[in-house]
Amino acid sequence: MIAFLSGRVAARGAESAVIEVGGVGMTVRCTPATLAGLQVGETATVATSLVVREDSLTLYGFADDDERDVFERVQLASGVGPRLALAVLAVLTPDTLRRAVAAEDTGALTRVPGIGRKGAQRIVLELRDKLGPPAEEPAATEEEGAAAPVFGANAAWRPQVVAGLVNLGWSTKDAEAAASAVAADAGEETDVSVLLRSALRKLSRA
Questions:
Q1: What is the distance between the terminal CA atoms of the chain, rounded to a whole angstrom?
Q2: Where would I find the Helix-hairpin-helix DNA-binding motif class domain in this sequence (predicted)?
Q3: Among 39, 66, 128, 165, which residue carries the largest CB count within 10 Å?
Q4: CATH number, domain 4-62, options 3.40.50.2300, 3.40.50.2020, 3.40.50.300, 2.40.50.140
Q5: Residue 198's Cα: distance from chain center in Å?
Q6: Coil, strand or helix: which one is 192?
Q7: What is the pLDDT of residues 49-66, one digit of tens each?
Q8: Global pTM?
Q9: Got the DSSP string for 24-69?
């Protein structure tokens, strides 16, 4: 098993990055939040999980070991493959997922594109004792109605949020609309993972 990669980020796309290790470029598929932390030309370390199929070898990259471990454990649920597991972590942090499963909050799980009510119920049932307890208490969230300065259409985070939504299955039109809605109350927030989850919440309510 390849537990991690450490090297220069040679390229970064909407779904993956290329990390140069010993003169070899290794492609790793990542969540939008993990990709946001990888800067081309800089050295980075990502925890990894290698998924082996008859016709492919795919390396998935994560911000830390906990995220990688949750990615692997989520796939223990029936009908959850690596792409859906990655989508889960694009929407929910590991601890948010743990709390949702512990509380049987299927509504939180159905925010993930590709997971319906029955799928969420199955995940809760099958992963209840497999994810472990949350590492920390839930952080306070901003009220959507709070006044905040508006970020323009050219905000640095916007292309990454739109790309992340499109990669999760939303249309470009819906992704752009959700990014615009998030921009209206983003305040000074620049964390792509936070903004992406905010956009997903708006889309799930639409």
A1: 41
A2: 72-91, 107-126
A3: 165
A4: 2.40.50.140
A5: 12
A6: helix
A7: 999 988 889 999 999 999
A8: 0.69
A9: EEEEEE--HHHHHT--TTSEEEEEEEEEEETTEEEEEEESSHHHHH
